[in-house]
């Protein structure tokens, strides 16, 4: 498989790639730069925010649900209007949003974390039809929010703990039962970051510090891996018209100059065509 540079903007902390199925356009975020980026036939587009932004889901052709450090906001891509629809730890200036994704039932899951990665300061939330509910707390770095193609299982990771969990969902998309460990990387030290599931149920996870995206089957066995020219890969997303391209964001945050010399593409966004058919990103119902 050939890894290509999709966009050469050097994000300090690239995150949250989203392929918009109606616009046929990739959106992603530079969290530390407080900006949302996208590319289409006209080139790169950048929207600057006054606060950290990290993830999004699509509502319709012109509106996105964007997760920020203090709220969930609906952003109109044509008018530029921005409307806050739910607070997100708005009373705590020491936290921000991180990984997020829409579920098959139209909900939007989003994790929060301490701005300096403080242990146990984060939480996991779900927004659905105007209601936001906390699903978990005592989280270090929330990541790997993604959903099985059957729509009845959710995945979630705490990168700081080297663990990925999964849980069953009810008909409305709310968790039921208990979280169970899906991947336990505590012995290997692998850092599970963002993840997405393909149409066949493989779990594709960007592994921070590992210069790769790794695919695991339902039993947690490693079945495929794709190396990337950046050690700090952050999140994958399937997209392109055939939905077989894997887009991957990366980061250069915290890398010393000699490491950047060895991996000068760090922070850029990559595209790997012909990987496997991915799921179409689900629509957020708000």
Helix content: under 10%
Quick one: CATH class? Mainly Beta
CATH names the topology as Neuraminidase
CATH homology superfamily name: TolB, C-terminal domain
State the CATH architecture.
Answer: 6 Propeller
Question: Which key terms come to mind for this protein?
Answer:
single chain, 286 residues, mainly beta, Neuraminidase, 4-stranded antiparallel sheet, 1 helix
Structural summary, described in words:
This protein has 286 residues and is mainly β. The protein has one domain (4-272): Neuraminidase (6 Propeller). 2% of the residues lie in helices and 54% in strands. The chain has one helix and 24 strands. It has one helix spanning 257-262, and strands spanning 4-7, 14-20, 25-30, 35-40, 43-48, 53-58, 63-68, 71-76, 82-87, 95-102, 108-114, 122-128, 131-139, 142-147, 153-158, 163-169, 175-184, 191-197, 203-208, 212-216, 222-227, 233-239, 245-250, 269-272. Strand 19 (203-208) and strand 20 form a beta hairpin. The chain is globular, with a radius of gyration of 17 Å. The termini are far apart.
TL;DR of this structure?
This protein has one helix at residues 257-262, and strands at residues 4-7, 14-20, 25-30, 35-40, 43-48, 53-58, 63-68, 71-76, 82-87, 95-102, 108-114, 122-128, 131-139, 142-147, 153-158, 163-169, 175-184, 191-197, 203-208, 212-216, 222-227, 233-239, 245-250, 269-272.
């Amino acid at each position: 498989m050939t890894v290509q540079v999709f966009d050469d903007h050097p994000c300090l902390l690239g995150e949250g790639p989203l392929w918009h199925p109606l616009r046929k356009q990739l959106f992603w975020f530079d969290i530390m730069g407080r900006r949302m980026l996208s590319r289409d036939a006209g080139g790169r587009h950048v929207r600057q925010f006054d606060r950290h932004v990290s993830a999004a889901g699509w509502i319709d052709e012109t509106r996105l649900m964007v997760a920020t450090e203090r709220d969930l906001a609906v952003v109109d891509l044509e008018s530029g209007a921005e409307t806050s629809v739910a607070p997100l730890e708005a009373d705590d200036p020491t936290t921000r949003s991180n990984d997020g994704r829409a579920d098959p039932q139209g909900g939007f899951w989003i994790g929060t974390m301490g701005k300096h990665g403080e242990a146990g300061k984060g939480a996991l939330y779900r927004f659905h039809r105007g209601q936001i509910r906390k699903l978990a707390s005592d989280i270090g770095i929330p990541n790997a929010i993604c959903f099985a193609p059957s729509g009845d299982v959710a995945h979630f990771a705490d990168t700081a703990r080297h663990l990925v969990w999964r849980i069953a969902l009810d008909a409305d998309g709310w968790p039921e039962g208990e979280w169970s460990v899906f991947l336990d990387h505590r012995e290997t030290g692998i850092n599970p970051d963002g993840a997405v599931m393909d149409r066949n149920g493989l779990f594709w996870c960007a592994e921070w510090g590992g210069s790769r995206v790794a695919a695991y089957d339902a039993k947690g066995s490693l079945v495929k891996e794709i190396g990337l020219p950046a050690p700090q890969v952050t999140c994958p997303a399937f997209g392109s018209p055939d939905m077989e391209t894997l887009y991957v964001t990366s980061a250069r945050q915290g890398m010393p100059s000699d490491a950047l010399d060895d991996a000068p593409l760090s922070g850029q966004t990559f595209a790997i065509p012909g990987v496997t058919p991915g799921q179409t990103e689900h629509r957020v119902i708000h």
